[in-house]
């Protein structure tokens, strides 16, 4: 399976999309590069929610590996999202190119780092990693499979069981120019935490809030006026992950002063009066002489 990401992750194909080497290589050849920002945390959450589910081809008995390829430093919290995956037994390999942050790669990747972190100076040099990385991946899968067989246990990957693990009915209300309220209906099995992610749809740094699983509402504040926001509410469990809720809404534009009037004119002064703009703390008044021939 493959997903590309910038500020908005995109699934290119699911685990179950291709069944032969030739089909997969043809898909890679036809892949179009997606430029943009580097929201790695959002991308890892997308992989967990969308790509590692049974209906996307993930088999319960199979080991789950995520290979992250990035050429920059993440603009959101990649470590928190990576930790969620690792807590669920998903192994992460991190490969950096050019401007990737090696410290961040080491935070995101699974242990042991000498096997899971790679960094090269430019894209053509990635070919030098293919042989070693292939051997390491196959060896890790065999090792983990042998350990589980020896222990006579099969580690189940968490499966979303609908209302048991997933909140429903996200409502966005009390929207102002600076804030909005979120409420949702909790799942039958309350999560340990909620991770609320919100960011402007036209690009901007995602912000995150972690809530206790007993809470099912949140006020988002200090927002930018007249801006469309994307909101995600993600339930996090110790051993499972439910589907997230998503919503979109726009903050209101800032209110404007109205009914501007000019009075008390003299040879060097005028008085201005207006109806106040709701919520304004200061006003900036600009005055300039009209060009010759124009109206006062």
Tell me what the structure shows.
The protein has 296 residues and is an alpha+beta fold. The chain has 2 domains: 2-147, Rossmann fold, CATH 3.40.50.410; 168-251, Immunoglobulins (Immunoglobulin-like). The protein is 21% helix and 27% strand. It contains 6 helices and 14 strands. The protein has helices at 21-29, 40-51, 78-87, 102-108, 113-116, 130-150; strands spanning 2-4, 10-13, 65-70, 91-97, 117-120, 168-173, 180-185, 193-200, 207-212, 217-220, 228-236, 245-250, 258-263, 271-275. Strands 9-8-11-12 form a 4-stranded antiparallel beta sheet, with no helix packed on it. The protein has a 3-stranded parallel beta sheet with strand order 3-4-5. It has a 3-stranded antiparallel beta sheet with strand order 6-7-10, with no helix packed on it. β13 (258-263) and β14 form a beta hairpin. The longest helix is centred in the middle third of the chain and has 21 residues, at 130-150. The termini are far apart. The relative contact order is 0.11.
Query: Radius of gyration, Cα only, in angstroms?
Result: 26 Å
Strand order of the largest sheet: 9-8-11-12
- What is the strand tally? 14
Which assembly state applies to the chains in this document? single chain
Strand content: 25-35%
Low-confidence stretches: 151-161
Helix and strand composition category: alpha+beta
Largest beta-sheet characterization: 4 strands, antiparallel
CATH topology of the largest domain: Rossmann fold
Query: How many domains, as an integer?
Result: 2
The general outline is elongated
One letter per element, helices H and strands E, the order comes to EEHHEHEHHEHEEEEEEEEE
The name of the CATH architecture of the largest domain is 3-Layer(aba) Sandwich
- Under CATH at level 1, the class of the largest domain stands as Alpha Beta
What is the overall number of helices?
6
The percent range for helix content is 10-25%
